[in-house]
Design a protein that fits this description.
alpha+beta; Heat Shock Protein 90; 4-stranded antiparallel sheet; 1 helix; 4 strands; 15% helix
């Protein structure tokens, strides 16, 4: 897991080496995990990118806009 500030963004990256999944596979209609994550990021004017593949693990990166640091023009 990494949390960084890069310019005018805050970037959170979470990775694992688990089972992974196919992003194109049908979703369980009762599950709102990925959709919920995307909606929450969108509410904060951010985006989420998900990179996963069966047997390879998953990386989730969320980018959110950041306010300027105090004392920075």
């Amino acid at each position: 897991m990494a949390l960084e500030r890069t310019g005018n963004e805050v970037v959170l990256t979470v990775s694992d080496n688990g089972r992974g999944f196919s992003p194109d596979a049908p979703r369980n209609p009762a599950s709102h995990g990925l959709t919920g994550m995307r909606e929450r990021a969108s509410l904060l004017d951010g985006v989420i990118e998900i990179d996963s593949e069966p047997g390879r693990g998953t990386t989730v990166e969320m980018r959110l806009p950041a306010r300027p640091l105090e004392g920075t023009p």
